[in-house]
Fold this sequence. Notes:
Elements: H1 9-13, H2 20-31, E1 38-44, E2 55-56, H3 60-67, E3 73-76, E4 82-83, E5 96-101, H4 102-105, H5 109-133, E6 137-140, H6 151-160, E7 165-166, H7 169-175, H8 185-191, H9 194-204, E8 211-214, H10 221-232, E9 236-242, H11 245-248, H12 251-264, E10 271-275, H13 280-289, E11 293-296, H14 298-301, E12 309-315, E13 318-319, E14 330-335, E15 341-345, E16 360-362, E17 365-369, E18 372-373, H15 380-391
Parallel strand pairs: 6-7, 6-11, 8-9, 9-10, 10-11
Antiparallel strand pairs: 1-5, 1-12, 2-4, 3-5, 3-17, 12-13, 14-15, 14-16, 17-18
Amino acid sequence: xxxxxxxxxxxxxxxxxxxxxxxxxxxxxxxxxxxxxxxxxxxxxxxxxxxxxxxxxxxxxxxxxxxxxxxxxxxxxxxxxxxxxxxxxxxxxxxxxxxxxxxxxxxxxxxxxxxxxxxxxxxxxxxxxxxxxxxxxxxxxxxxxxxxxxxxxxxxxxxxxxxxxxxxxxxxxxxxxxxxxxxxxxxxxxxxxxxxxxxxxxxxxxxxxxxxxxxxxxxxxxxxxxxxxxxxxxxxxxxxxxxxxxxxxxxxxxxxxxxxxxxxxxxxxxxxxxxxxxxxxxxxxxxxxxxxxxxxxxxxxxxxxxxxxxxxxxxxxxxxxxxxxxxxxxxxxxxxxxxxxxxxxxxxxxxxxxxxxxxxxxxxxxxxxxxxxxxxxxxxxxxxxxxxxxxxxxxxxx
Length: 398
């Protein structure tokens, strides 16, 4: 009996998570001897949520694993690549394409889209928060808002998008880092008081874990912050304000008060970490108020999904596409200097950048050939570095 409602690896690979109309499609194609028809199907998006000008592609490693053993070729932009819905001329950009007998992969369209749509949304929202946070630390706190089965994906996508750490054990294990976190209000209540809990944390927890005290359980945040500093002295690394805006008024003013009261008492080394209902706007505002670290949860784990779609664009070497889509296999060429993209038919020669005349590189690269994974699948830390390098060249808004 299944204890929790999730699909396992084998069920996903076998297409058990597909939509029923693909089952019927395969049945009809087989009955009419059309299941071996050779197609090219590409993944594009017409636009991004909330008028985002760019996205961070995520989930490509899982796409490679999904198509492993399936007799098709898959080309994709490298995981972590910044992508745009359209190139400089307004043509839709494919972020990946699948080529092979349609009957061999039609059942995998639904899970494939699920792998990239949600992870890309989470990675993109994380990258946007990374942009507004600047060099300040940001930790992913959002796994408690989503089904626990996808905690590894959520934390991996958040980290790839540029966050500094994650709170879950399994997420940290997935990306190869130590989990990050402080203490819950439950500890303070169970210990019978703030000072008792802070001192117990300091006595029991390994010295390599930063001493970060939660300071909004019973009293005013600035009062508890001073109490924590006086209790732990130089060992205190930071105080955490988990202060929902719905209860406490002007969060920015609270941060300023805490900073002042700590500083005048000689505790300038104590940083301020804030959490509780944060998003792009509040991270920016609270950073300007003096917050030096952020725990961001729901706005990342519940990030808008990117509505990628898979469409056949070529059949048996002939151009074919439904209305609103462009027929034929394509390549995306990118100028590495100014990030201008050019979409061209796949076999057309390499272009120069139309804006700065710089050299371009092809962005759709083989990851699966006839069912074999042929591309390196980099570690999350390497992908994160790639993302951060691209973010330096991007505006937050169009």
